[in-house]
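Dear support,

I submitted the protein below through the web form. The confirmation email said the job was done, but the results page showed an empty box. After a refresh the structure appeared. I'm attaching both so you can tell me whether what I see now is the final result or a partial one.
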Amino acid sequence: MKPIEIQNATYFVRNSGTVHQILANSTTAADPGWYLLSGSSRLHTIAFLDLLCGKSELQNGFCRIRGNISWPIGRMGVFSSVVTGINAISHFSILYGFDRNFGIEFVKEHLGQYELLWKPIVNWPTQIKLKFSLLLALVADFDIYLIDTNLAFPEDVDFSRNIIGLLRAKAKAKTVLLTPKQTQVVKAICTKAIVVADQKATITDNINEALAINNSKPINIGSINETAEIDADDGLLF
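What the results page shows now:
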C-alpha cells in the first residue's frame, strides 16, 4: 500500500484575501522513497505540505496518509518568550510519543551548544533553531517526513553530514519529502519529485525538470511563519 494517496482532489487555499486553486480533480500516489517537493509557487508547496500533515483539507476528493507523518519540519511556529528547548522536547514527547529523557540526551549529543536547551528558544541563533527542529523530528518515529528546511550548514559540515546520515538511517524504506531549499542537497539525495503545478500533483523521475518548475510562477505570500534561508553554497558536502 502506498503511504501517500490523493484521488480526485480539488483543493483551494486563501492567501491575502485571494482564493488560489492548488488542485483540480487531481489523482496521484507515492511509493516509499525520497522525493523533492516542487511547487510552481511557494504557496503551492506550503499548501501541499499543509494538506499532507492535516493542517488543511480538500474541498473534494480524498487524501489518504498511511502511517505516522511529521509536521513540516522547519516550520514549528512561534514559541512564547518563556519556552525553552527542554520545554519543547517535553511537549513534543507527549505529542509524538517518545521518551522525554531519551529526547533530551539525543538532542544534547548532536546539537552542539546544548547549554541553550535551558534558555528560551526565541533568543537562539537561527541556525541553532533549524538544527533543533531537525533533531527533534528524528527523535520521534515517523513513516513520512516532511522537511521544509536546510539540511546542509556550510559553517558546520560535521553536523550536516551527521544529520543527513541520521535521517537516512531513520527513514530507510520510509518516505521523505524535501523542499528545494538547497539545490545540490536535493539532487544528491532525492530520486523522484512530486510537482504541484497547473492544478495537479504529479510524480516524475526528472529532478532537474522539477527544480526548473519550482517557484516558476511566484505568488506573494501573506501571513506565514517562514524559516530564514541560509544563503551559502551547499556544495561543500556533495
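Response: this is the final, complete result; the empty box was a page-load delay. Residues 223-238 have pLDDT under 50 and may be disordered.
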